[in-house]
Each structure stands twice: as structure tokens, then as C-alpha cells.
Amino acid sequence: FKVISVTNVKNTQYATQLLAQTSLRNILGTKSLQEILTDREAIAASMQSHLDEGTDPWGVKVERVEIKDVRLPQSMQRSMAAEAEASREARAKVIAAEGEQKASRQLKEAADVIAESPIALQLRYLQTLTQISAEKNSTIIFPIPIELLSLVKRST
């Protein structure tokens, strides 16, 4: 211990522990749960630099910082869990929207193909009837083309 630490700080060990706790709280408060679990080395390095800044004027040198176990208060655990859930929900909504967008494009492409070839609509209709009959349904509904109805109206 240097003379500075003895004259400026009454209990350097206690003061260093308090500084370490405060620094750890401040650093962990800026991290997500995922970062806390995966970036222990980076957090320890950040802690080391914070402690060096705080303890150098006292003449104390912290040689090593290791983060072995972090216990978070229940309220912080709940807020982190809520944040993670909201993030998952947001990603799910983005994925669903992208799926809808792709489906819309494919439907438009299918409509363009059918518009170019009227027989394609008839083939699709027959394919749908085949699928319905394969499901052993007792009722099959035959749709009547709108064009046929307009011809019937004109003739009456």
C-alpha cells in the first residue's frame, strides 16, 4: 500500500469492493441478457479499466477481474425476459409479413399466367376437383363461370 492509499482512503479493500460492485452494476445495466451470458471476457476487461481508473489515485492496482456468476434481481430478470419476448414477437411479425409479401407476389404471377392462357384456369379447376375427390368428400360444388351467367342474362 502506498502512502496515498493510507492517507486518502480509510479502508482500501472495502472501497475497492464497493467500486467493483458499482462498476459491475453500471456495466451490466447497459447489456442485454444475451450479451451478459456470451461476453464475459469483454465485460471483465471493461470492469478492469473502470477499476483501474478508480483505484489508481489510491495507489491500489487490481490485478485480475473475473466474472464467474452473475445473479440478477427478479425485477431485472422479468424486464429482460419481457424485452426478449418482445424482440421475438417483433421478429415473428417481420417474418410473417415477408411470407405474406412473397405469397402475394406468387399469386400475382399465377394470375398473370392464367390471364395469358385461358386453358390454364380450366386445368387448375380440374386439378382442384381431383384434390377434392381424393379427400372422399360426399359433396362437390361445381362453380359456374361468371361469363356464362352474363350470357344467360343477355338472352332473357
Q: What would CATH call the architecture of the largest domain? A: 2-Layer Sandwich
Distance between the termini: 111 Å
- Gyration radius, to the nearest Å? 35 Å
Tally of structural domains: 2
CATH homologous superfamily placement of the largest domain: Band 7 domain
Per CATH, the class of the largest domain reads: Alpha Beta
What structural class should be given to the helix and strand makeup?
mainly alpha
Tell me how many strands there are: 0
Subcellular location: Membrane
InterPro entries: Band-7_stomatin-like (IPR043202), Band_7 (IPR001107), Band_7/SPFH_dom_sf (IPR036013), Band_7/stomatin-like_CS (IPR018080), Stomatin_HflK_fam (IPR001972)
Keywords: Membrane
Organism: Rotaria magnacalcarata
Polypeptide structure, described:
The protein has 156 residues and is mostly helical. It folds into two domains: 1-71, Band 7 domain (Tetrahydropterin Synthase, Chain A); 73-135. It has helices at residues 3-8, 12-28, 33-38, 40-55, 74-116, 118-134, 146-155. The protein is rod-shaped. The model has no long low-confidence stretch (mean pLDDT 81).
